[in-house]
Amino acid sequence: SMRTILSAILISFLLSGCYNHYNNPEQSDNSLAAHTTISTLYPMCSVGVLTIEESLKVKGRVVSNDCDKYFNGELYIDDGTATAKLMIDQYSLYTRYPEGVEISVDLKGFAIVHKDHILQIGLPSANNKRVVDDIVSQATLNKNITIGNSISTLHPKEYNISELNTSLCGKLITTNRAVHHPADSTDTYFAGGYHRFCDRDSNFIHIYIDKNSSGAGRILPQEEVSLTGIITCKTDNLRDSTTLIIIPRRDSDIWQ
Q: Alpha-carbon distance 120 to 105, whole Å?
């Protein structure tokens, strides 16, 4: 039963100890409640959507919002164990949920699903048992989300391209010594879409450039650069392959 699941989660949370802030040195806001960690939720919805019927709270720090054109209607929160993506059908979320602020989310009435290696939080869908619907009502957001009192500076963890994998999906990371590797050697400018970067050992990562961003149309870098953003992935089931993609939060994540 749901009550048994919640009891098991609460016990495991108490035994697991404190909140891990390896990316954020500031302390967690103790006024915000959490019954469990985000990573504990992943196996609960690995085979489909799970609707949460009783109060179950997680908390995490906002690592990306819709401050630019890349994450419209999405909030990514990280509690140090994993990341979750809140699906919200609203604009200007960054004005209420700025990067670095810690929030507590009561999942009661929400639905969760493990999709593309990221935990998604939304509303139960009446038509599709494999996806969640966007949260629309501001009254629902006000009831289920509590905003902390302080904002912390985010410190993306640095990885080599060779270290990137699907377990990092949803996390804010940075990688250095990346060189653009165009599909066409005549490419001179960034166009909207996906662009491939490699390290010195030919390990590669793709980045996504929004066609409406100021980054589209810039001259492609010839030197090594650092790339910062949220790790996501695209899965090709026919080819049984997964492509890792860094989506920047803003253009300055690529052009420092």
A: 13
Neighbours of 22 (CB within 10 A): 8
Q: For 111-159, how does the pLDDT look when each residue is reduced to its tens digit (9 = 90+)?
A: 999 999 999 999 999 888 789 999 999 999 999 999 999 899 999 999 9
pTM over 0.70: yes
**110 burial level (CB within 10 Å; 0-12, 13-18, 19+):** buried
Give the helix/strand (H/E) hosting 76: strand 74-78
Q: Could you give phi then psi for residue 93, rounded to 5 degrees?
A: -60, -30
Q: In 116-253, where do the E strands start and end? A: 118-124, 132-133, 145-151, 157-159, 172-180, 193-198, 204-209, 225-236, 241-247
14-32 confidence digits (pLDDT tens): 333 333 333 443 556 677 9
**CA–CA separation, 34 vs 18, rounded Å?**
11
**130: part of which helix (H) or strand (E)?**
none
Burial 135-171 (b: 16+ CB within 10 A, else e): beeeeebeebbbebeeebebebeebebeebeeebbbb
User: What's the rounded Cα separation, in Å, for the pair 60 and 102?
Assistant: 5
Decide if 22 contacts 80 (C-beta within 8 A): yes
Structure tokens at 74: 């999405």
The pair of structure tokens assigned to 77 is 């929160």
CA dist., res. 179 & res. 65, Å (int): 27
Cβ pair 193, 208 in contact under 8 A: yes
Q: What is the C-alpha separation between 38 and 251, in angstroms, rounded? A: 29
Give which of 45, 38, 8 is closest to 20, Cα–Cα.
Answer: 38
